[in-house]
């Protein structure tokens, strides 16, 4: 009954499936992000660790999104060009993500002591923007 009311190919179901896959990849990205922050923080400090971690997580997310979420889409670009496009398209999500992280870390001592909380909030803040921009600009 529900399937009959959903749009045909190219409708909401394929987009919802992509969004769920994107969210799953994003969960792995969050793990890479948090792990990198915790690993690098003692050596280079919180701010530098969060910037380095973002690029590591974004690169890993690009790989998984290319291979799984958007398989076969946007493959006309070279790998390097597509990676750069992914980072560029997700720049707005980066600003949402890291501004959330820093706002929480600098205003709530608990979030600075346990950055995983601020990183989770940042990931959620940038997710919808990153999905939309990735789908429309990188994997079209």
From TrEMBL:
User: Which Pfam family is one of this chain's hits?
Assistant: GtrA_DPMS_TM
Report the transmembrane regions from the record: 43-64, 84-106, 112-133
Listed InterPro entries: GtrA_CellWall_Glycosyl, GtrA_DPMS_TM
Claim: NAD is one of the keywords in the record:
no
CC annotations in GO: plasma membrane
Q: Determine the domain of life of the protein's source.
A: Bacteria
Q: What UniProt keywords apply to this chain's record, in alphabetical order?
A: Membrane, Transmembrane, Transmembrane helix
Bilayer topology annotation:
Multi-pass membrane protein
Entry's localization field: Membrane
What are the residue boundaries of the GtrA/DPMS transmembrane domain, all occurrences included? 21-139
Keyword set includes DNA-binding: no
What's an example GO BP annotation here? polysaccharide biosynthetic process
The text of the family note is:
Belongs to the GtrA family.
Name used for this protein in its record: GtrA family protein
């Amino acid at each position: 009954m529900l399937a009959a009311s959903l749009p045909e190919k190219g409708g909401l179901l394929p987009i919802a499936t992509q969004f769920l896959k994107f969210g799953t990849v994003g969960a792995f990205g969050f793990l890479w992000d948090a792990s990198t922050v915790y690993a690098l923080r003692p050596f280079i400090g919180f701010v530098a660790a969060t910037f380095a971690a973002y690029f590591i997580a974004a690169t890993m997310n690009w790989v998984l999104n290319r291979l799984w979420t958007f398989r076969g889409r946007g493959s006309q670009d070279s790998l390097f060009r597509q990676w750069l496009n992914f980072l560029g398209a997700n720049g707005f999500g980066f600003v949402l993500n890291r501004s959330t992280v820093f706002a929480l870390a600098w205003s709530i001592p608990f979030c600075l002591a346990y950055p995983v909380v601020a990183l989770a909030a940042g990931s959620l803040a940038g997710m919808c923007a990153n999905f939309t921009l990735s789908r429309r600009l990188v994997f079209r």
